[in-house]
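User: My instructor asked us to take a sequence, write out its structure as tokens, and then describe one feature of it. I'm not sure where to start. Here is the sequence I was given:
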Amino acid sequence: MISIPHKAKQFLVLLIKLLVVGGAFYFIYNQLANNDKLDWVKFTALLKEKKSFGNISLILLLTFLNRFLEILKWQNLVEVINKIKIREASKQVLGALTAGLFTPNGIGEYAGKALFFDKSQTKKIVFLNLICNGIQMVLTIVFGIFGLMYFNAEFEIITAETVGILFGILVLTIGVLFFVKKINIRGYSLEKLIHKINGIPKRIHNKNILLAVGRYLVFSHQYYLLFLIFDVEIPYLLLMAAITSVYFLASSLPTFQFLDFAVKGSVAVYFFGLLGVNEWIVVFISMLMWFLNVVIPVVIGSYFVLNFKAQWKS
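Assistant: Let's start with the prediction itself. The structure tokens for your sequence are:
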């Protein structure tokens, strides 16, 4: 095995850190500067008109709560290995978010979190991160399906027959998964995964679900409040149905974190267009959600990346 000198390792680690942080800031700048759907003059004028201490404080509070609940989720789950403080959990979540910014569907987050732990714990950390993200995805699907059903009842985007077919496919998929759960693929099976999930204490699962529900309610209502601030007057249930539908459909598409607002914005334009909301308002709100919930945490996470010291043992 080739031995790399200590100074060379230090330089290589520094280079990787700079590439991660530099790449993150480049992708953010590129998304904001080169998006032809954003009219910055109109956007600035509207922000000046709508800004108030109360609005800004409430939106920033929800931004903090969104990421803080994610940090609490991770701190709770990683207790399976060892207890960590809020600061350490914040470092791991925000640092991993920065590392995963330009990887498909945030896959880089899995590797990012694993680097904070001993190499022997990598599989456990990846598994816990899968649980952490998995419950959020399940809630997005559940709320999204109910939202789509409510929205469809109002606008009939798809016919009742199509809804029946989709539910039939869902039931069939669940049935197939149930019958093939014992089939092993390279030593892995659904049954083994369920067994591993059941190996986590019930109190940790319950807390994880509670925090995930809280986080979903926080960011979906942050979206809702931004529409209210921009004078969009739509009944609560209908507006929330559109929001949950947008998150569900946008999350189903493979994408990168730095393109998150473009993907959600495109889906949102269609749904809110049916509600009579101006396209540019939808785009600006989608951009604000992305800026508040991705860009700001990535900027903070960049500090943790630059000060990162790997826990892996060689």
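For the description part of your assignment, you could build on this observation: Residues 78 and 261 are 29 Å apart (CA to CA). Try explaining in your own words what that tells you about the chain.
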